[in-house]
Structures
1.
Amino acid sequence: MAELYISELKYLGPPSQDFIEIAVTKDTDVSNIQVVVYNADGTIRSVNSLGSVVSTLDGKDVYVIDLGTSATFNGLGKGNAVALVDDGAVTSFVSFNDRPPVTATEGPASGLTSTQIGQAGANESLETNDGGASYFTQINPNSGIIPCFTPGTYIATPTGDRLVEELAAGDLVITRDHGLQAIRWVGRKDISGARLHSNPQIHPIEIKKDALGPEHPCRDMMVSPQHRIVIDDIQASKMYGSRQVLVPAKSLTPNSGITVANIKQTTYIHILFDHHEIIFANGIATESFHPNKMIVNGLERAIQEEIYQIFPNLRTSTTAGYGPTALPALSVTEGQLLAQTIWDNSQADYHLA
């Protein structure tokens, strides 16, 4: 029997940001599946079909309903309820803790009262990782973007380059400044098609082979937009007082070999050490995860707890807590100015650290 559930809901804010994400067993016929949005008084607000698959992940086809994918969807508010209907039978009927439960007065859920699944703020969503049995508050991806790698990236280790997705806590990695260092924690986050679709700013950045010099990187790679790359250039010294700086990947698009990746889903993987480290990924110098207070606050609560178990001072610290970055770190705007200066001038002496 096919598995079918509401995997994520964004319901508070302008309708242009609202979405309903549905997960269903791969290759399931969804022609008889509908998502019905109910008003607080139990009447129907909209009836929506699933349309086209946005992505396929972990054996599930993922569909998204929003203003761009459904001609009938007109937003989702805190007083609304959502019914997932399979061939006329309601498989799920949920609403939000901001308002009382909704009792449907018409349509397929008529006579049913919604189950409240939680509450999210204007820049948050509700998401499940157990097939709809429970939901947790997911921080809006805008504030939850964290520096991380994607599968297929090779990390330099004392036993040779290893795929980032194969690394685990305790494995040794070559660092630029502190020799071999053991990984303290590895985190993974599957980024659904719905989240990419509704938040194009979190699409990974693709760095093509040789984009930063011969064999830098040695093969194509993708990182999250805020993942910082080491740039070593005289212009950085002139502009920011240090020849070597960390620059967010999204700032480097003035380089023709660095672009926003055109993909439907991805997984972000972050590697944490005792200190912020410069490590080597596909032959280029880049950063490990730096869990400052702002970034940790943007993570899912379960992930926060995992990190707090390793670095308890982060729980109460109101400042950096974890320590400084390994090199001066530029903002996105500062990085863009540097990148434009470097590549607009086509500097012949450009090289990586």
2.
Amino acid sequence: MNLEDIRQEINEIDNQLVKLLEKRMELVEQVIAYKQTVGKPILDSSRELAVLERVANLVQNEQYRPTVQATFADIMAQSRAYQATKICPE
């Protein structure tokens, strides 16, 4: 496989990831509504740790585990930042 073929496959995966991330953000909107209703804080450390543990257990290739966990940590950080713009706008 040449570099352009590999990049094309990466592009296809990126397309799928964008759709999934948008779907995730739609669910984050529901989380925001819930947290506003019940007065829950944006950060739920125990939930984030559980997500990172669950994700780590899903990774089949152990050498990828730290990178995948870091990616999910970034996703959750961006989700918190987005929530903050909706729950505590300046």
